[in-house]
Design goal:
By secondary structure, the chain is mostly helical. It contains 10 helices and no strands.
Length: 203
């Protein structure tokens, strides 16, 4: 139990440092210093930094999966759910200076590919289900194919995160992409809800 707790503490501290300061710049020495422990203690749980990065990313993805599923399941409004997801990611990465996805792709390409493949599968399920929910609620048109539009939106979001270094720039583009996505799907009822969500953000 104590070992599991210590390992969890290392991952949590590593996550904080990696997201705030970058995957490449943070060393095992930095993490040990932040935790007031020896580097030897870190190596009891992780053979090297790459394994620590991989397990940290897996933990981040587990948390994302849980929270996004919760948001989209519990939010009765499909459009409001989309905006809440966007706000969740913005809050999650607000301490980051550069896009975590961009950093991972550049410095740890093998870990990036593994994380990317998992994220593709999970995101497409979320997007398809949310589009179908919006159709059922009358926010989205019934003549659209949820799979096709989910793919379009996925490509937009991931291209933004892979190619935009600055987190604030990425967040602004993601909001524009969400607006673009919803306008492409929306019924008149959906447009009204979209404008309401945008007004709340701008206010």
């Amino acid at each position: 139990m104590k070992k599991a707790m210590m390992k969890s503490k290392i991952i949590n501290k590593s996550r904080e440092l990696f997201l705030r300061l970058g995957f490449k710049s943070i060393t095992m020495d930095d993490i040990a210093a932040e935790m007031s422990c020896s580097k030897k203690t870190l190596y009891k749980f992780f053979d090297n930094k790459e394994i620590l990065v991989e397990e940290t990313i897996e933990e981040v993805q587990n948390e994302i999966h849980y929270n996004i599923s919760k948001i989209l399941t519990e939010n009765v409004n499909a459009i409001a759910g989309n905006f809440e997801v966007t706000a969740y990611f913005e809050d999650m990465f607000k301490s980051s200076e550069t896009s975590p996805i961009h950093q991972l792709k550049k410095h740890y390409p093998d870990i990036y590919r593994k994380a990317h493949d998992r994220q593709v599968n999970e995101c497409k399920v979320w997007f398809v289900n949310n589009i179908q929910k919006g159709i059922d609620q009358g926010y989205f048109r019934s003549d659209i194919d949820p799979d096709t539009y989910a793919n379009f939106y996925y490509l937009l979001i991931f291209q933004i995160n892979e190619n935009t270094v600055n987190v604030r720039d990425a967040a602004a583009l993601e909001l524009k992409a969400l607006e673009y996505h919803i306008r492409a799907l929306a019924t008149p009822k959906g447009i009204i809800e979209l404008e309401l969500q945008l007004a709340q953000i701008h206010n």
